[in-house]
Design goal:
Layout lengths: L1 E7 L5 H8 L6 E8 L3 E2 L2 E10 L1 H19 L3 E7 L1 E4 L3 E9 L2 H18 L2 E7 L4 E3 L19
Parallel strand pairs: 1-5
Antiparallel strand pairs: 2-7, 3-4, 4-6, 4-8, 5-7, 8-9
Helix pairs in contact: 2-3
């Protein structure tokens, strides 16, 4: 079995993720990349800042992988989330999965990213081209929360 959960500050190395999950019995190897886009809600985005208490975030990411493994039977999963400041086009999250069959790989990858979006204690601030910045609703760090309600998707 191979489960690999990482929180990193440096650029995500996709070769490392593929190496985590690669093995001869796989008929499918899937790599999902979440990247910083140049807009949000009609506003031009220059960059993002992700913050986290890294040990907790890594533990939660590992819990997600264990749960997805239990639900899908896929044994080889690797997930990495980057923290710090990222510019447009950089990889913020990456998930690699290998399994004997493609349907299982797609399902496992989808479940991992959906759970990451819901549960991972990583907070995102959008830094707009006009110099303004704003925490994304539902991802505000605990010490900066105001009277926000609900949890929007990241």
């Amino acid at each position: 079995m191979g489960l690999f959960a990482r929180i990193v500050r440096d650029p995500i190395q996709t070769d490392q993720l593929l190496g985590d999950v690669g093995e001869g019995g796989s008929g499918a190897v899937l790599l999902f990349l979440g990247t910083v886009r140049d807009h949000a809600d009609g506003r031009p985005v220059a960059r993002l800042r992700y913050e986290a208490y890294e040990p907790m975030a890594r533990d939660v990411l590992e819990e997600i992988l264990v749960e997805v493994q239990g639900r899908t039977g896929v044994e080889r999963l690797s997930a990495v989330h980057r923290v710090g400041e990222l510019v447009v086009g950089e990889i913020s999250v990456a998930i690699a999965v290998s399994s004997p069959h493609r349907a299982d790989a797609y399902e496992a990858s989808r479940l991992v990213i959906e759970e990451v979006k819901k549960r991972l204690p990583v907070w995102k601030k959008e830094l707009y081209s006009d110099g303004q910045e704003e925490w994304v609703a539902g991802t505000t760090p605990p010490e900066d929360r105001t009277s926000e309600a609900g949890s929007a998707a990241r």
